[in-house]
Amino acid sequence: MKQAEADLARSSAQYRDSLLVAPVDGVITKVNVKPGQLRPSTEPSITMLGTTPFRIEMFVSEVDVPAVHVGQSGSIVLDAYKKQEIPLVVREIDTSSTEKDGVPKYRVKLDILSSSGVTLRIGMTGDATIITGFRSNVVSVPLRSILDRGSGSIVRILTKDGTVTEKSVSIGMEGEGGNTEVLGIDAGETIIVVEKK
To answer: How much is the average pLDDT of 163-173?
Structure first.
């Protein structure tokens, strides 16, 4: 009887080893292996799309990654849905870098919070933004209007009488769209923006 129990346990273990069990609920989207075929362990044999939450990956430079933290919010605009901004939240940040185009970058995984009205598919691309800080009631100017003067930064102001004056400023946070927070000028002042020709 003991021998029969041992045989049953061994056969059960061998049977379990022959099964592939999905770690989460989802849909198999691609099978890259055929019966009897051997594949390298570095290449996926099966691709699966989990039901929820949908997740995207982005690679952040080593200069910017210190400002990224788990729990920060963000958004993505997919190339397939240009007019819809999809909310994101940072869930994971790799501790080691990955080389992308010869440059070390850090992979950041973000969960999609809501995708109403959008049909998501594996491999979609887009432009993602992570909000690393927030300021309210600040003066911001285009980055092109800030000039470096060695000892500090200045902006040129057009006064009401038509003359140009320079003011020293301190640079704060860089915002979306190329605007930068500055301290040292008042809201409503007319600044001169440098344009490249």
So the answer is: 87
CB within 8 A of 48, min separation 6: which ones? 22, 26, 27, 28, 29
| pLDDT surpassing 80 at residue 195 | no
- Residue in this structure with the two tokens 């099964």, named with its chain if needed: 19
Distance CA 18, CA 38 (A): 15
List the single range of 7-11, 150-154, 193-197 with lowest mean pLDDT. 193-197
Contact 45, 33 (CB under 8 A): yes
Over residues 84-99, the pLDDT tens digits come to: 899 999 999 999 999 9
Ramachandran category for residue 11: left, alpha or beta (phi over 0 → left; psi -120 to 50 → alpha): alpha
The label of the residue with tokens 């992979």 reads 107
Rg (Cα) of the chain, in Å, rounded?
27
